Automatic annotation (TrEMBL):
It comes from the Eukaryota. It comes from Hermanssonia centrifuga. Gene3D superfamilies: 2.20.25.10. CDD domains: Trm112-like (cd21089). Pfam families: Trm112p (PF03966). This is Multifunctional methyltransferase subunit TRM112-like protein. PANTHER family: MULTIFUNCTIONAL METHYLTRANSFERASE SUBUNIT TRM112-LIKE PROTEIN, UPF0315 PROTEIN-RELATED. InterPro entries: Trm112, Trm112-like. Belongs to the TRM112 family. One of its GO terms (molecular function) is protein heterodimerization activity. GO terms for biological process: rRNA (guanine-N7)-methylation; tRNA methylation. Interacts with TRM9.
Amino acid sequence: MVRLITHNLLACHAKGCTTNNFPLQLKDVTIELREAEFNPDFVSGFLSRLEWTALVNAAKELGDTSLPPELPDMVDDDLLKNLHHVLLEIHIDEGSMICPNCGHSYPISNGIPNMLLAEHEIG
């Protein structure tokens, strides 16, 4: 399933698309909320790997405004719970991810992103 934890790591890899290819823009998505067990150690351990602005903007696109615009210096339990929800409980079931640079569309079907490229698109 595509979750924002996955989306935050994906960039366009089409031939010649090497700049402004992250984050992929979400389009026509349907989401489902699925409860997941809260693991504060996992969430806090993942913080350094996140592109914060991209995550906040993607969450807003999906209707969640619980994250602050900038990552605070002090991370408290409330922030970790909000982050857990955004990263692990919002599932994108259908839609697409669009490269802001080349416009390539990566479809999402039944929660699975298709990141495969046609032979002529491989760089």
